[in-house]
Write a structure and sequence with these properties.
2 copies of one chain form a homodimer.
Chain A lengths: L13 H11 L2 E2 H12 L5 H14 L2 E3 L8 E4 L1 H25 L7
Antiparallel strand pairs in A: 1-3, 2-3
The first copy, chain A, binds a DNA duplex through helix 2 and helix 3.
DNA sequence: TCCGCTTACTAAGTGAAACTGAATAACGAG
DNA sequence: CTCGTTATTCAGTTTCACTTAGTAAGCGGA
């Protein structure tokens, strides 16, 4: 459930979901998958998640913490928090516009 | 401005933006570009927009209206409205989770 | 009338990312 | 010692977003 529609867009980026997840606290990949599933309903396959982690790290929005060689935890960086806040603001604007427009008794009268 | 970050995700799907735009009323492509620019800050290039329109039409979420051979107007379908509402709900959940988590005095104490 | 601007869409080609799915492996429970 | 969960890596494919360029109708002004 909470399916990302194949063909057509995904409707929410993996990168955003990761940032939201890490905003709660440090996590390793596998826990992010579970967390993201809970708050967004999107179940990510490993390949999708780890690919996004790599790119986010290159961007400097998250950083790897000392790994215990089984789990590889990540932390969101200050730049990551900035980016997240900015994106959330944009998201809110779009969501509000959409809600306003899709609300008024569609199909009725 | 309102840049979609090249590499890394786009953070908002073109398809969603189109649905929000059409939720306000019928529009042809060029006007959607302007409308979307206004409410989301994302300026789409023609190729991006028209590609999304094609896929949305195949999906049955929008439909082409009789064209005057210069403008090609589109209308959102009932299924499109359903899909939009569902996506907005998901978006709101993500946005709320993100805002809650990114809020509490980050980096302070 | 013809020049140029805005409007409006079409089309081609590229790269990056999301997705699937399978392989690997450590660890705990029983 | 075996099975299920935890956790990550990797390979391969699809698809979308992006850029850019091209076509063309309509309109205002000189």
């Amino acid at each position: 459930m909470g399916r990302r529609t194949p063909d057509l867009g995904r409707f929410t980026d993996v990168a955003l979901l990761v940032l939201v997840s890490l905003a709660e606290g440090d996590k390793h990949g596998y826990r992010m998958i579970q967390d993201i599933e809970e708050f967004s309903g999107s179940s990510l396959e490993p390949g999708t998640l780890y690919g996004a982690l790599m790119r986010l790290e290159e961007r400097g929005w998250i950083e790897a913490l000392p790994s215990d060689e089984r789990r590889r935890p990540y932390r969101i960086t200050p730049q990551g928090v900035d980016a997240l806040r900015e994106q959330l603001a944009t998201l809110r604007r779009i969501e509000e516009t959409g809600s306003r427009r899709a609300r008024p008794s569609w199909g009725v009268a």
